[in-house]
Amino acid sequence: MIYSEVAAKYAQLEQISGRNEMTVVLASLLTSTPKQELAPLVYMTQGKLRPDYEGVELGLAEKLALRALSASAGVPPDKAYSVYVKHGDLGTAAEDLLKTKGQGTLFSEGLTLKRVYDTLLKIARQSGAGSVDAKLRELSSLLNDASPLEAKFIMRTVTGELRLGVADYTVLDAAATAFLGGKEARADIERAYNVHPDLGYIVESVAAKGLKGIEQIAVGVGIPIRPMLAERLSSAAEIVKKMGEKAVTAEYKLDGERLQIHKEGDDVKLFSRRLEVITSHYPDAADLVKERVSAKRAILEAEVVAINEDTGEYLPFQELMHRRRKYGVDQAISDYPVALNFFDILLAGSADLTGKPYTVRRKKLEQTVERTDRTRLVPAVTTESPGEIEDFMEEAIENGCEGLVVKDPASTYRAGAREFAWIKLKREYRSELTDTIDLAIIGAFHGRGRRAGNYGTYLLATYDGKRSVFTSVAKVGTGFSDEDLEKIPRVLKPFESSVKPPGVESKMVPDVWFRPKVVIEIIAAELTLSPIHTAGMGRIRAGAGISLRFPKFTGKVRDDKSAEDSTSVDELVAMYNRQTKKIGAQA
Ligand code: ATP
Question: What is the pLDDT of residues 528-560, one digit of tens each?
């Protein structure tokens, strides 16, 4: 497959926003791609090189990308920089500069999809001493052989900014259209994707073996499953009603980090909520699993929580963040001990349990996990009485939890779904008007007074998944400790951008832009409408977006969420509508 064909389709996709039209274009691209190149093509179309859980990160720094570009275009670095700032995008800058240079395809060696993919993979995998020069060489050599249009997409891909707006589900639609002659099999493909979230592999399987290929895709040790998520309601009575006025299982909502635990004999792998491998943060937890989980092969879910070793009490989430470090892990293990709190089991031996009701899974969990101070089952009660649930909620909060997760005992494990089979109930829903929400930092404003020389406030965004864009929602300046004020700029530094990053929609212009990567948790008094912010623009009222009144940082940097996992525009709209209903009811 030649890369110019891919680039031409990308250019076409860029012009389209309708999902149906996008599916058609993508399906034709899939059909014209040789089977062995389908997986690379699919990853690249999503601006990636491998499935997320393998942790192969693109995202070359702006400076380095500019150096390669200025070398290939034969212009001084400051010229490349000014063209970049003029266009606001490295891809368009590359296209412009190579056009000016007169670089065509005539004299260059035609790029293949394989060469582009292999080179990008090499760049992503290089690290350590000398890697900067090596990356530079690889990228320059690609750009030297690229047409202006090809260079545009190569540049965007390598900096992690290829935002074609092709959602995972659009790729699944396209695969169904291309290889199964329609969307009838779409639900089967989606099921396969949710239990084996490797889009390249899924498309390849569909292409090679049709429906049979994907029916064979099952839950497996070593491949993380997309987690089941919870909806939210604001009272126990509403929850019981929503679940059909029957007995429900209320569990502590522990304030730790979600772990998906994969065990194969003595080999234990821990995946985070965003499906990254994080075994190295919790080697002690992996040991606990080895010792206390009786099944040889298993996939379990647990919340890992920091504890006070002397009393066994739960400690807040912030304590766990000390475990996210590369060096001094041993010291951190003894300074910040943790307990595993199991709440689900998805595979035991050879039995896939995801299709079994929750009661059956919980029973299996009880049989599989040996209970100790460090390995616990999440406390649960089963009742149909809202009063009893409220009492349990008080108890949970007293014990340092955020609230409850109430589960429908009959529900199967719905990988990747946020539905009412699990409903969270938090204290915030009652004392304040909104839940905590997770927002991506897209900019910062310089501080004054005590914060002179540092950032004073941050500009935050929600993710609009339908359009693949980040929309501004609020500025936040309160709730930051001195430690946060020192740490957050450091975390943000690699994502600094001289221009408004592609895929960001904001009328407000901060002093410094950041690519949306870092997610923080915010609590606010209520949701409001604002003409300045672009989140959900026009969804509630024409000309107004959704914003927050009195936003405050809770102290949590959500390392366990990617920017795309931040609270979505749809969720904000639903929260706004719920809030209006509640105010109406109180009046
Ligand atoms: P939040 O910000 O509230 O954690 P989220 O988007 O991370 O939300 P949700 O699906 O809304 O995820 O809430 C479920 C989360 O609560 C899980 O990801 C898990 O980390 C945590 N949790 C704590 N206790 C439980 C429990 N008993 N059962 C399921 N999840 C639990």
Answer: 888 889 999 999 888 889 998 878 899 999 988
Quote the longest CA-to-CA distance of the chain.
77
Active-site position among 9, 48, 152, 253: 253
Q: Calculate how far, in angstroms, residue 377's C-alpha sits from the geometric centre of ligand 1.
A: 15
β-bridge pairing 375-377 and 297-306: unpaired
Q: Which of 391, 414, 430 is the last residue of a domain?
A: 430
Testing ligand 1's pocket by substitution, the residue of 225, 226, 228, 229 carrying the most ligand atoms inside 8 A of its CB is 229
Does residue 147 lie in a domain region? no
Tokens coding 98? 């190579």
Note if the pTM is more than 0.85.
no
Q: Is residue 55 a part of any domain in this protein?
A: no
> Is the residue at 343 inside a domain?
yes
Residue 396 shares a structural domain with residue 459: no
The pLDDT value given to residue 115:
96
Is 426 an active-site residue? Answer: no
Beta bridge partners of 460: 441, 474
Q: Is 556 in the pocket of ligand 1 (CB under 6 A)?
A: no
Domain, as residue range, for 413: 229-430
pLDDT of 478 above 90? no
Contact 253 CB / ligand 1 (< 6 Å): yes
Q: How many domains does the chain have?
A: 2
Residues 516, 405 within the same domain: no
Q: For residue 161, what are its two tokens? A: 């900014």
What whole-number distance in Å separates Cα of residue 393 and Cα of residue 399?
10
Indicate if ligand 1 lies below 6 Å from the C-beta of 150.
no
Q: Is the domain of 405 the same as that of 472? A: no
